[in-house]
Amino acid sequence: QKEVEQNSGPLSVPEGAIASLNCTYSDRVSQSFFWYRQYSGKSPELIMSIYSNGDKEDGRFTAQLNKASQYVSLLIRDSQPSDSATYLCAVLPSGGSYIPTFGRGTSLIVHP
Amino acid sequence: SAVISQKPSRDICQRGTSLTIQCQVDSQVTMMFWYRQQPGQSLTLIATANQGSEATYESGFVIDKFPISRPNLTFSTLTVSNMSPEDSSIYLCSGALDYEQYFGPGTRLTVT
Q: CA-CA distances (angstroms) from residue A86 to A32, A98, A110, B107?
């Protein structure tokens, strides 16, 4: 059973701080990793994809992947109240499957 | 990216009836999927919609209850049949471009 684990939170950070969201996965040979943002009452929105070890930056978002330790994280710099949402980690298994395993999500609250 | 539309956006249905949800994608995605999401829960995959053939269902979901069609690369329907209150949920369509998955806005179904 392939698993993706996230702390459900809520993670509460002050406005302007760095929010750090973490995700661990069990399938050692997974190749593709994704972060989705889901606002309350809305559908998930893809915000980052990462496929190689290291960091990938997009605006205020940085995804970090460490395949040896089997974790992927999302850093949000200069957090804003509009970043308050649930963040879902998704991992694609090896073997060419298009069906990711989703974590249960971490709730982020950015307070003014 | 892919833009995905769904209709209806919400519906309230009587038990024992059926509802068909439509999903339209603006580009030729590799794969289309149907998910269910209960409030505060993560995503549960119902099935992979296969073009021109029977859908591939996940454990716990059957064709008689959730018939799915995908007549072409950009359109799919999910029917929730013989509904009961336990079917009340948000139903999400998604499409995969390469390995990135994009979600429609969802259909909020309430069964009374």
A: 20, 23, 12, 19
| Chain B contact present for A105, CB below 8 A | yes
The closest of A4, A14, A28 to A87, measured between CA atoms, is A4
Quote the pLDDT of residue B40.
83
Mutate which of A38, A43, A45 to disrupt the B interface (most B C-beta within 10 Å)? A43
Burial A50-83 (b: 16+ CB within 10 A, else e): beeeeeeeeeebbbbbebeebbbbbbbeebeeeb
pLDDT digits (tens, 9 = 90+) for B11-69: 999 999 999 999 999 988 889 999 999 988 889 999 999 998 899 999 999 999 999 99
Burial, B51: exposed, middle or buried (Cβ in 10 Å; 0-12, 13-18, 19+)? middle
Nearest CB to B101 within list A42, A46, A105: A46
By three-state DSSP, how is residue B83 classified? Answer: coil
Q: Cβ(A12)–Cβ(A109) under 8 Å? A: yes
Q: Decide: helix, strand or coil at residue B87.
A: helix
